[in-house]
Amino acid sequence: MRTGMLALAAGLASLSVLPALPPTWLVLLALPLGLMLLPYRSYPLAFFLFACCWAVTSAQWALDDRLPAELDGQTLWLEGRVSGLPEQREGVVRFQLEQAVARRQALPDRLRLAWYDGPPLQAGERWRLAVRLKRPQGLVNPQGFDYEAWLLAQRIGATGTVKQGERLSPAGGLSAWRDALRQRLLAVDAHGRQGALAALVLGDDSGLSVADWRVLQATGTVHLLVISGQHVALLAAVLYGLIAGLARLGLWPRRLPWLPWACGLAFAGALGYGLLAGFEVPVRRACVMIAVVLLWRLRFRHLGVWQPLLLAWVAVLLVEPLAVLQAGFWLSFGAVAVLALVFAGRLGAWPWWLVWWRAQWTLALGLLPLFLALGLPISASGPLANLLAVPWVSFLVVPLALLGTALLPVPGVGEGLLWLAGGLLEWLFQLLGWLATLLPAWLPMALPWWAWLLVTLGCALLLLPAGVALRALGLILLLPLWFTPPTLPPAGQAEVWQLDVGQGLAVLVRTRSHVLLYDSGPRYGDFDLGERVVVPSLRYLGIGHVDTMLLSHADNDHAGGALAVQRGLPVAQVLSGEATELPAALHAQACIDGATWNWDGVRFTTWRWAGAEEGNASSCVLKVEAAGESLLLTGDIDQAAERGLLAAGHDLRADWLQIPHHGSRSSSSAAFLDAVAPRAALLSRGQNNPFGHPHPLVMQRYAARSIPVHDSVTSGALQIRLGARQAVRGWREQARFWREK
Hints:
single chain; alpha/beta; CATH 2.40.50.140; 5 domains; eight-stranded mixed sheet; seven-stranded mixed sheet; 27 helices
């Protein structure tokens, strides 16, 4: 039985490592092969094949439900129903549309849309909308959130921007009731923490600010303010404990067996809480796990702890195989496995305070390899923060929030309880903010596989009971986490990364011992690419400081992320073609025309058109030369600036050219391209951007000169080893079955 379950578990999880989905004929061939193996002792292999076939088929259904390529970037009129709870922030309404239909085109069943300056929407409404649709695609960098994997796991087949629309029918059903309840929660006086209460009660985290998310991530307490398995399990445990306590005191009716009733009511409470929270994937996963645990408590305790955990794994993935693409799946099961390993076989009773403290530090240590593998930041203050915050939220805030929500119809009572819950949350955020400042989150560099294995082995040894031989060796095995040196270019060469920041620019140039960042990516309200892409990518590459941040000019798409970079990493100096237009906190200095310097045998030269007054033409141009190979970074210079640089007599010849102004029609003149004569060009832009970059006429000029263009939309982040004369490497070339090519 256990062998078969392990085979099912492995087959379902194998989806996460497939570079590409196998063809349909191979899946169809595997099914009869598995049936042939069933009567023999090879049944585990048969179970593995069955699980693989189901996982692959489910994933293929999700891929087939994506927007057809011919509709990418097109604007269509469509109809559908608003699902979930729409999010409104900074004038933008973001929501999901289900049952989407158009008159002549087949559309994905679920869309994720944004409506700028749109009207308030309610879950359950039906709308007719004009939407510019895009195939699911995200930014692909050395480090960062995999948006495409998340969209596929949510079975979202397209994203889009709403141009206009009309409401066809009002809201109705459970979704409309949840939305009305959210509005009621957001209207109460809760010390400014109404958004956090909505997150705890309804699973709607749109009310949490960016500053709140920073604090939660830095202290490892995100799981506390988003409805997760912990909240659902807590309610189930309270209901189970209440009935068990009544039975122990003799207050439970003897004619009713207490154990089945305790398990049944606990699961009913968990299911009800899950429905209140929208029954999203994490909540569904938690309900399945709770059902398995309660069933184990009711009938199968003799099987031990690991069997129900394995059964829950299989049950969750049978329901939704794409859950393996989400970090929460691995972290939730990893946390349960670590606690089972540490506490299941302990001898004797421990004091409650020792159990609680041991649970926190063992979780931090046991989940460390998973955080490293998933590329997630590691919270140094996490054990201490959770030691205090988990009981605070679990036993004070959540009960008060749920009880206050239930008593809202009673005048004054519900509001009073929610006011108290909000005050407790405000105190908690003040404490977490102090801890986040004292011990900020740490994003380590990417470890080679051998270093990761050593760290994993070290964590496993430290989790063993005290007194086990060689346990202390685990501390030594953790040393690669801090002392593994990054891979650096040799003297005379430079490593160049054009990061994928959408409609913007950020280029990293690293020599043997110095780092230059040319532009910092854009910032759109709370969505800061400097914070979300540039800083994590630099940390992932083992970069702990920036010697020079050169901002070509002050436009948002080139300098919007500069402050976030400065907050995230020490920056020695900032240069810019528009130094006076940048925020004073950057202390930017003017780019000097003709300035040169040498780092580790690599030569850097800056130019700026003397006739530029402001804007794109003021862009500071940078030329990097390494071992006879050169790169020209041009920012947003226009044709007037190009003519100015040519007239100044600068040697613009370069092997690699960053296409000026994202391929705008106003740049890349024929004379400029002839003077540079690049053997290849790099283009940084956003997919289906509103400016129409790159312009077809500009691309014709590059094609006429046989200059290949490496586009961030199709290649993701681009890596060049300048001075080695190697081919460019696109980060999107890494095989992932869910990734657009």
